[in-house]
Amino acid sequence: MGLFDNQHARTASSASEMSNQIVRVRIVNSQSADVLDDTTQIYQLVKVGKDGAIVNHVTPFNDNCDADVENQSSGSSQSNSETNWVHRTQQWTVSWVSKHEQLVVRAIVAVLLAAYTAYFVCAILYSVDMAVALIVLTGLAVLGVAYMLIRDHFGQDIYKYCLQPIEELIVRTWPVTKWFVYPIIIIAIIVYLALDVVTELRQLQPLIGFVIFILTMFITSKHPDKVIWRPVLWGFILQFLLAIFVLRWEYGYIAVKWLSDAIMTFIYFGFEGAAVVFGDPFLVFHPFAFMGMPILIYLGSVMAILYYWGLTQWAACKLGWLMQISLGTTAIESLNTAANIFLDGMDTMLMLRHYIDKLTRSEFNCFLVGNHATVAGFVFAIFVMFGAPPQHLLSAAVMSAPATIAICKLNWPETEESITKEIDEIELTEGDDINVFEAAANGAAVASKTVGAVVACYIAFLSMLAFINACLSWFGGLVGFPELSFELICSYVMWPVAYIIGIEEVDCQESAKLIGLKLFATEILAYQELGKSVDAGRLNARSQALTTYAMCGFSSISTLAIAIGVWNSICPQRVKQMASQMFRTLCQANISCFMTACVAGLFYSEELMSKWDAEESTPQSEFITFILSLIPSYKDLMDLVGM
Question: The pTM is what?
Answer without folding.
Answer: 0.77
